[in-house]
Amino acid sequence: MTSRQLPAIAVADLLGVNAQTALRWAFDTRPDWSAYLDARTQTSDSGGCDTTLVT
Q1: Backbone φ, ψ for residue 31 (5° rounding)
Q2: For 33, which DSSP code?
Q3: What's residue 18's pLDDT?
Q4: CA-to-CA separations, 8 to 21, 28, 32, 54, in angstroms, rounded
C-alpha cells in the first residue's frame, strides 16, 4: 500500500502532522490528467481508437 492509497487522516496520524496539512498535501500531489485527456482527444480526432461506449 502506498501513501496515495491511505486516507489523508491516516497519513497525518502516521507523520504527526495536522489533518488539514495532510489533506493539502493530498490535493497538491494529485495526478494531473490534462496531458492524458489532450492525447486522447488528439487520437480520436485523428482516426485513432474508437472510444465510443457500446451498451
Answers
A1: -65, 145
A2: -
A3: 95
A4: 9, 12, 19, 37
Q: Give the separation between CA 35 and CA 23, rounded to whole angstroms.
A: 24
Distance between CA atoms of residues 14 and 19, nearest Å: 11
Q: What angle do CA 21, 25, 31 make, to 5 degrees?
A: 160
**Per-residue pLDDT tens digits for 1-54:** 555 678 888 989 999 999 999 999 888 888 888 888 888 887 655 555 555 556
Cell numbers for 7: 486516507
Q: How far is CA 55 from CA 4, 37, 40, 52, in A?
A: 33, 23, 21, 10
